[in-house]
Amino acid sequence: MNAPASPSRHHTGNYWHALDDGRIQCDLCPRYCKLHADQRGACFVRMREGDAMVLTTYGRSSGFCIDPIEKKPLNHFYPGTSVFSFGTAGCNLACKFCQNWDISKSRDMDRLMDAASPEQIAATAARHGCLSVAFTYNDPVIFAEYAIDTAIAAHAHGLKAVAVTAGYITEVARGDFYAHMDAANVDLKGFTDDFYVRQCGAHLQPVLDTLVWLVHDTNVWVEITTLLIPGLNDSDAELQALSHWVARELGPDVPLHFTAFHPDYKLDRIPPTPPATLTRARRIAQGEGLHHVYTGNVHDPEGGTTRCTGCGAALIVRDWYEILAYRLDDDGRCPQCGTALTGRYHRFATPFGSRRIPVAIQPVGAHDE
C-alpha cells in the first residue's frame, strides 16, 4: 500500500510498497530496488523520502528538440511527421555501450535546466506543428508519472505519445504506463541473458515479456531496435535466434531495426559497426520471414525502404532519416495492388526531413521562438 508522502519538493511516485523490515520496495522495474531512508534506486531518480517514494525529475528535462519520427526510429508510425522529443536523467539499465550516456548516466541533477509542466510541453509541441511527443534520450519508464501526465496533456491537444524504451518494466506498472502510449520503439539489446547481465546489468526475459504483451494485448504500435556491437551481439546464430523469435512470437509484420554502434562510454575501444554487418543482419531476419527489416545510423537506401508485402513495390524510400519517395494511398495502401501496409499513416504535404531543432520552453504566458 502507498502511504501519503511527507511534504516534499519532489513529486510523489507510484509503484512501491512497504516491506516488513522497514524498507520500501520499488515495483516499477524488475530491479525491485529496496530502499532505506533517503536512498535512491539504481535509476538514481526514484528516491525514498520519509515513508514514500518520490520522483526527483518530475517537470525537469535535459532539453527539448523537434526530430523526424524516423529518428526514434519509427518507420511505420506516421512517417514524414515531426515529433517533440525530450528526456530527463538517469536510467534503470547500466549499458556499457550507452549512446546517450551523458544524459542517462547523469548523477548531476543540475544538468536538468529545462523545467516544463506536461501542459507546457504539449502546448509547445502543438504550436510547432508536431504530430506527437516522444519520451526519449533516457528511458521514460523511470519517469513514468511525468511521462503519463505529459501523454494525457498531449492527447488533449490532439497529439500522439511515443515511448522510446528498453522495455524493462514490471507487469504491475506496464498497464498504467502503456495505456497512455500510442507507439513504442523497444530496444531489444541482444538475445542472450549473458549479454544483458554483462553489458546492461539486467535480464532478457522481462523485455521479451513486455514485447509479447505489447504486441498481443495492447493497441500500441510497436517497432524494435537492436544496436549491433561487433563481437558482442552480432553473430549469425544470435541474429537468427532473435529474428526467429520475433517472427514466431510477435509476427512477421513487426518492424525490426538493426542500427550501427559507434564507440562510446565504456566500450570506446570497440570499432564502429561495419555497414556489411547491418546488411547481413537484415538478410538473416528476412530469411526468418520478417517483412520489414531496416538498417539504421548509416546511409543505406535499400535498408531504409519499406516494401509492399503483396507485390514488393517500394512504398517508402528513405536514406537515413530522409524520405526520398512516398507512394502510399491516403488510407495506407499500396497503389499498385491495394495491400494495406501495417502501421499508422496519414497524408502529409512535405516530409519533415532530417532536421533536429532545439526548442526552449518559455514560462507560462510567453511564446517560444
Could you walk me through the main structural features you see in this protein, from its secondary elements to its overall organization?
With 369 residues, the protein is α/β, with parallel strands linked by helices. The protein has two domains: 45 residues, no CATH class; 259 residues, TIM Barrel. 23% of the residues lie in helices and 22% in strands. It contains eight helices and 20 strands. Strands 16-15-14-13-12-11-9-8-20 form a nine-stranded mixed β-sheet. Strands 1-6-5 form a three-stranded antiparallel β-sheet, with no helix packed on it. α2 packs across α3. It is globular and about 65 Å long. The N terminus and C terminus are likely disordered.
Characteristics:
369 residues, alpha/beta, TIM Barrel, 2 domains, nine-stranded mixed sheet, three-stranded antiparallel sheet, 8 helices, 22% strand, globular, disordered N terminus, disordered C terminus
SSE layout and pairing:
Blueprint: E1 11-12, E2 16-18, E3 24-26, E4 34-35, E5 46-49, E6 52-55, E7 60-61, E8 64-68, E9 82-86, H1 101-104, E10 114-115, H2 118-127, E11 132-135, H3 144-156, E12 160-165, H4 171-178, E13 183-187, H5 193-200, H6 205-217, E14 221-228, H7 236-250, E15 256-260, H8 275-287, E16 293-296, E17 306-307, E18 314-319, E19 322-326, E20 357-359
Parallel strand pairs: 9-11, 11-12, 12-13, 13-14, 14-15, 15-16
Antiparallel strand pairs: 1-6, 2-3, 3-4, 5-6, 7-10, 8-9, 8-20, 17-18, 18-19
